[in-house]
Amino acid sequence: ETSRAIIKEIGVSLFSVMIDESRDMSTKEQMAVVLRYVDKRGHVVERFMGIEHVMDTKAVSLKASLDTLFARHGLSMSRLRGKGYDGASNMQGELNGLKTLILKENESDYYIHCFAHQLQLALVSVAKKHQEVNDLFSLVAKVINIVAASSKRYDILKEKHAIAVIEALKAGELESGQGMNQEIALKRSGDTRWSSHYGTLISIITMFSSIID
Question: Which residues are in the DUF4371 domain (predicted)?
Answer without folding.
Answer: 1-97
